[in-house]
Amino acid sequence: MTPDEDRLHAAVAAGVLAAEDDFARLLRSVVEVARAIFGAKASSIMLLDEETDELVFAAVAGESEQGLVGTRLASSTGIAGWVLSSQTPLVLEDVSSDPRFARDVAERTGYVPKGIMAVPLLADERSLGVLQVLDRPQRSRFSLQEMELLGLFASQAAIALDLLASARRARAALAADPGAEVVARLAGALERLEGPRRAAGLALLEQLTLVLD
Amino acid sequence: MSEPEPIAEDDLEELPAWSLSRQAAGQIEIANPLPARVDREWALGGSTGAGVRVCILDSGIEAAHPRVGEVASSVVITVSEDGEPIASADTEGDLCGHGTACASVVRELAPEAEIHSVRVLGAGFSGTGRTLLAGLRYAVEQGYEVVNMSLSTTKRKFGDELHELADLAYFQRTVLVASAHNMPVESFPWRFSSVISVGSHEEADPFVFYANPDPPVEFFARGVDVELGWTGGGTIRATGNSFATPCISAIAALILGKHPQLTPFQLKTVLYLISTNVGGATT
Q1: CA–CA dist B118, B85 (Å, integer)
Q2: What is the pTM of this model?
């Protein structure tokens, strides 16, 4: 695909994809469901900001919810950094016994969890971020079944995040190209049409293609 | 049964590398290092891992942690702007806790193994794949008998180079023990047949381990709700394939401590034969 075609595809995608607000709601829903299925006190998604090489809190549910979104962490240190870098899930109990961890986390969030489940968000070969579930109830020994559930859930979250990343790229391309914006608006309008009007719109585009080609 | 004599390295070096003449064929008799029956007593009975160097390729190891004890060397790997790997003395300790945890498992099971730390984390995520490769290359160059890799990369561009490194390690008798990925993604190097890949079982006994009849994951070891050393001199309980991996690294160190002549291929065979579900449960 040429760069021009690539931009056009991105623009069309932006035209038909839902707004970024919708993705933020989706992310929030993901952390709320993660918290609910494990009966945990809190859950969060951190996204990798490739430009600054940092992890950024993108959605939080539960304890320490207030003000944490937007907080940035080093991308390769601490538990989340290790999970992102090693691309391996990790489940820790009694983590508050580590004084350095407790101090670092408390300074940032005011809430020190005892237990952390952390799993990388992987889409194909890209690492998008880390999903954390904090303080699941200690009613039972952790099981491999829960580990599998965590992995499956993280895979689903990664799909949502990957869509968000695509939308962001598409919007950036759109902003830089007024020509593409027109195409995107057209694609978006067409997408919203139904029945005969949609068919007529598509036929019109076909004719337009013949004229322009 | 008496121990067979290992083949002399000097003799090997004089032999042709790519073909075998009729004359040379008579010169490469190799004493079979394995007895007629391989059991746990033969494989690791009485071994403490003494004489075996285990490298923890991870987040560093906390110095003087009571669960780890002496760390023979600690280096941190960085990659220069022109892509050259640099190994320098590591004074940071452990930037996460994970490397200390892995080292504590090795110390628990193979108390006299020599533990070396090669830190490949801390310089930012963006360089992780390159640093991981450089760290593994460093570990292979050092000729460590066992390298514990509780990490992997999904970047395909590093796959080929990792593959070459894993093969290099295999032929020079460095055993790579790598965590299997329990998520639906393709990652390296654990899938390579030249490494030993490890997943978790739920039992508490660190010497219970299972051979998997359905690879690519080859062995399952203790990895659920394990008490481990962690930063700050304390302990935590944790779950993950990354903690099952050092169990197999330590058991490999015990075997190599007693049978240093084993190649990685033979070592994997011994691990298989003494696995709990093969022959290890009865001895």
Answers
A1: 13
A2: 0.85
